[in-house]
Request: fold
Amino acid sequence: MAKVHVGELAVTVELAPWERPFAGGRERIEVPRGGLRSVEVVERPTRWSATPGGRSGLVVTGVLKVGRWGLGTGTRRFVSVRRWVPAVRLVLDDVTAGALGYDELLVSTPEAERVAAAVPSGR
Reply:
């Protein structure tokens, strides 16, 4: 399961070895704190409403989603979510999204509330 770390300068998503192929082989996705447009907690991230659009990744219906979601919606979303584990949604600004290749990150973490509280939401 991916881990989310909030640092002084960036929010880092550390990917488990089996998740890396679904993120283009990356070990981590690092988002500068200044590159965040908004942050929110998603209580039920495996629901379709949390990850609309087509996908390129792994899905076990109602249990697990890992990969790129949002195909056909105009929003490039990296998703690593689990049933019964809340997620943090990080919405990136245009410059950061262009650099990372994602507009949003949606990652399950038992500490979603703490992560959201530690990162300023919006500008």
Notes: The chain has a mean pLDDT of 92.
